Amino acid sequence: MKKSLTAIQPSGILHLGNLIGAIEPAVQLQETSQLSMFIVDYHAMTVPQKPVELRKNILFAAAAYLGCGIDPVKTTMFQQSRISEHTELAWILNCVAKIGELERMTQYKDKSQKLNVKSQSEGVSVGLFDYPVLMAADILLYDTEVVPVGEDQKQHVELARDLAERFNKQFGETFVIPEPKIRAEGARIMGLDDATKKMSKSATSAKSYISLMDESDVIRKKIMSAVTDSGTEIRTDRNRPAITNLLTIFSIVTRRSVESIEHSYVGKGYGDFKKDLAEAVVSYLDPIRAKIQTYLADETELKHILNDGAERAKKQAQFKMHRIRQKLGITL
Fold first, then answer.
1. Which of 151, 149, 201, 154 minimizes the C-alpha distance to 23?
2. Same domain, 145 and 28
3. Is residue 190 part of a domain?
4. In this structure, which of 48, 94, 147, 289 has its CB flanked by the most CB atoms within 10 Å?
5. 226: domain CATH number?
6. What is the domain count for the chain?
7. Distances in Å between the alpha carbon of 233 and those of 173, 192, 263, 269, 285?
8. Under a CB-based contact definition with an 8 Å cutoff, are residues 284 and 56 in contact?
9. CA 160 – CA 137 distance, rounded (Å)
10. Residue 282 belongs to what domain range?
């Protein structure tokens, strides 16, 4: 079985786009690969965090993973900061990475612009600039072969590949070259209020996304208020991004083809379509929300699962770092 890896930031909010684009593919992947799945609390620190909230969000992320179907027996699930080898390898890869390739990272440019400071050198932390190298370390530390990601993270996997190849060329074969795995449909779910922008928890309006913890009535209101395109036909069209996005969501949560759904609404309007879509999303998310709430009610069990996963991950990480130190010549 191939080794795969994915991770999630402890933000306190996970939305439908996260579930469809990253978590659900990982749930499927655990059946066919050796999956490592972890909570990137060090990545979360690239922006200011309140310690009490960060701890709460780490537990929520663990509960969300489990509630969405991750099996801690099949999957090694852990907390990033428990494995010191992540940051040790990140430093080593910093000495291989080039400033220019980090400056080209799309997410770095987007996030630094949102800080609204006079200059990037004044307002952007080194962590925000450098976190793609830590992400590369996350991936390469476990000999990862497959990385399920959304389209917006593909660039980071490509950086990991570049750093691995550069290190291998300089010090000899050490790292496995990972491959990104992007969902064919639903890899990029767009905002409900603006179908030209990805669904995001950092959106200015909560109407943009459907949180995994939204109550049924909230979901219905958000779907009914979702923007639509000009025209009345319920069909996909690259010039009609709003209805295309809604059809994609409908298809994924019902496991029906887009073509089948389009056929069902010939001669019908947006009102009927949105009502049915809302009920489909409610049916899809209600059981998940209930499971997450059950896990959140048992903090002791959540910590036990994370501790068990960390022990397993630590063994892998220590073995890999020993080999890396030998390659570098720092093991005496």
1. 149
2. yes
3. no
4. 147
5. 1.10.240.10
6. 2
7. 56, 18, 11, 7, 27
8. no
9. 8
10. 206-293
User: Is 229 inside any structural domain?
Assistant: yes
Are both 274 and 303 inside the same structural domain?
no
pLDDT tens column, 253-270: 999 999 999 999 998 999
pLDDT of residue 1: 87
Q: What is the pLDDT of residue 182?
A: 78
Tokens 């220019």 correspond to 100
Is the pLDDT at 142 greater than 60, yes or no? yes
Query: How far apart are alpha carbons 80 and 47 in whole angstroms?
Result: 17
Mode of pairing for the β-strands spanning 146-148 and 33-39:
unpaired
CB 281, CB 223: distance < 8 Å: yes
Contacts of 327 (CB under 8 A, 6+ apart): 171, 172, 174
Measured between alpha carbons, how far is 36 from 13 in angstroms, rounded to an integer?
22
Tokens of 168: 């291998």
Closest CA to 148 of 292, 320, 280, 31: 31
DSSP 124: -
SS3 content of the chain, % helix, strand, coil (to 5): 60, 10, 35
Q: What is the distance between the alpha carbons of residues 310 and 307, in angstroms, rounded to a whole number? A: 5
The two beta strands, 179-181 and 146-148, are: parallel
Neighbours of 241 (CB within 10 A): 17
CATH code for the domain in which residue 100 is found:
3.40.50.620
pLDDT of residue 230: 84
On whether both 309 and 278 belong to a single domain, the answer is no
Give exposure, 45-80, as e/b (b: 16+ Cβ within 10 Å): bbeeeeeeeeeebbbbbbbbbbbbbbebeebbbbbb
- Predicted pLDDT of residue 152: 73
Report, as residue numbers or ranges, the catalytic residues.
Answer: 111, 198, 201
Q: Is the pLDDT of residue 10 over 60?
A: yes
- Distance between terminal CA atoms of the chain? 35
161, amino acid identity:
R
Q: What does the buried/exposed string (b/e) look like for 119-158 if buried means 16 or more CB atoms within 10 Å of the residue's CB?
A: eeeeebeeebbbbbbbbbbbbbbbbbbbbbbbeebbbbbe
